[in-house]
Design goal:
UDP-n-acetylglucosamine1-carboxyvinyl-transferase, Chain; 2 domains; five-stranded mixed β-sheet
């Protein structure tokens, strides 16, 4: 697979300490990961983050009570639940004891912080029943919360202010604000209304036809949600296919939403009905275990109950092109979403050129795909992925910097990476406060020639709170002790953080 590109020049990879990012100040903790001789297991992963966000948000503007089963409650989805509560919806958790609590994290019987496989009850406020928040809404680190919620808030008859943490306040919002302004929204923000915090004032919205510049499900969804409150028809035309969870869920709730090729058409409905949602496992989380099995010389891993929506399966296609055999079994449809069990085993990966239409289908998996490329035969190129520069970190720069620290030959481009496969060495690296960087580096460490020290390891909490215990279970002995390891090897060295 390849894509055509114009002439682009590599850029210099700066030291991690020189970059503007969350770094270890955003999320603490250090983990030391060692290579192990064997890797195996069958597991489930947290409920799909994209679907959990939408199940909570869309049921919050529906009429009635919905049950969301298998919800993933990483930090980002907790931000969405908190935001919708501030707007008048009620979100509670049903525990195995049968007890219902407003505390979504702590089991009332055991007192344990448990966030996997949650059952949520969402009492919707109705399409026109949201209320003015008494305080600023904080989206935390969640770009999905901020962008989708901006679409909803743009159509409300009340004033609201939306902010986020230090990382999110540096991520671009202009691409959402500008088209909403064309619809009539009154939104103001920092840096010429391109950055959070945002103030959103009441204004009537009108349906328009909008060609969005990037294949972004967040941008598309924000405009679809604004279209629920607009007069006339709103048409959003994307340059490429992107994940379609919003369209699927709204259609099941009775909304007038139609997809015609790359265009989505939406009209204001009379209301939305509450929709029970069974959330499948997140393929973005499953990707770490699939790659772990592929790159390890003695491994077989099965991930059960994974969402395999075709707008999200680019990672399976890419690994298959690289020579992996990903076995898909127990295929079924749950709540309108395709679901299956995925199994991967040890193999020799080969290089591949990745770009074009596949990128939106694996945009969140590029960091772990880069790890796969680091041990593949030959040189892999990943292009058309400039969107990764405005995620929780500049992911292209973070991947290039930290893989280079671990001895991998990487060239960073404005829109991608060139990676020459070989070996991964030990070293000291940092998550940059980015959950996907932390997990990708940990998987690479399973085949490294020395221990890999990962600072900012707690960043995994954003999407996969149980990542470290799960890693320890399928790769027993891989997690070392930082203090003991430093004592064994003497004074601190290396160029990592």
């Amino acid at each position: 697979m390849s894509a055509e590109h114009g002439t682009q020049h590599p850029v210099t990879v700066e030291p991690a300490s020189d970059r503007k990012s969350g770094g270890t100040g955003l999320h603490g903790g250090i983990r030391v990961v060692h290579a192990v001789g064997h890797l195996s297991g069958a597991l489930t992963v947290p409920g799909d983050k994209s679907i959990t966000h939408r199940a909570v948000m869309l049921n919050a503007i529906a009429t009635g009570t919905a049950t969301v089963t298998g919800a993933g409650l990483g930090g980002d989805c907790l931000s969405t639940a908190s935001a919708m509560r501030m707007l008048g919806a009620r979100v509670r958790r049903r525990w195995s004891s049968g007890e219902l609590t407003d505390d979504l994290r702590r089991d009332p019987v055991t007192g344990v912080d448990t966030r996997d496989d949650a059952v949520l009850l969402v009492d919707g406020a109705g399409l026109d029943g949201l209320r003015e928040p008494a305080d600023v809404i904080d989206a935390g680190n969640s770009g999905t919360t901020a962008r989708l919620l901006t679409g909803i808030l743009a159509g409300q008859p009340f004033f609201s202010v939306l902010t986020g943490d230090g990382s999110l306040r540096g991520r671009p919002m202009g691409r959402v604000i500008a088209p909403l302004g064309v619809m009539g929204a009154h939104i103001r923000g920092r840096a010429g209304s391109t950055l959070l915090p945002l103030s959103i004032s009441p204004a009537p919205l009108s349906g328009v036809t909008i060609n969005i510049p990037v294949a972004s499900a967040q941008l598309k969804s924000a405009l679809i949600l604004a279209g629920l409150y607009a007069s006339g028809e709103t048409v959003i035309i994307s340059p490429e296919e992107s994940r379609d969870h919003t369209e699927r869920m709204l259609a099941a709730q009775g909304a007038d939403v139609r997809t015609e090729g790359l265009a989505v058409r939406v009209r204001r409905p009379s209301g939305l009905r509450a929709l029970d949602v069974d959330v499948p496992g997140d393929i973005s989380s499953a990707a770490f275990w699939l790659v772990a099995a592929c790159i390890h010389p003695d491994a077989t891993v099965t991930v059960r109950n994974v969402g395999v929506n075709p707008t999200r399966t680019g990672i399976i296609d890419a690994l298959t092109l690289m020579g992996a055999t990903i076995t898909v079994t127990n295929e079924r449809t749950v709540g309108g979403e395709p679901v299956a069990d995925l199994t991967a085993s040890s193999c020799q990966l080969r290089s591949v050129d990745i770009g074009g239409a596949i990128i939106p289908r694996l945009i969140d998996e590029v960091p772990i795909l880069a790890v796969a490329a680091s041990v593949a035969t030959g040189t892999t190129t990943i292009r058309d992925a400039a969107e990764l520069r405005v995620k929780e970190s500049d992911r292209l720069q973070a991947v290039a910097t930290h893989l280079a620290t671990l001895g991998v030959t990487v060239v960073e481009h404005p829109d991608g990476l060139t990676i020459t496969g070989g070996r991964i060495a030990g070293g000291e690296v940092a998550s940059e406060g980015d959950h996907r960087i932390a997990m990708a580096l940990a998987i690479g460490a399973l085949v490294a020639t020395g221990p890999v020290h990962i600072s900012g390891a707690a960043a995994v909490d954003i999407s996969y709170p149980a990542f470290w215990p799960t890693l320890s279970r399928i790769a027993p002995g891989c997690l070392g002790d930082e203090a003991a390891d430093r004592s064994d090897r003497g004074p601190k060295g290396g160029s990592g953080k």
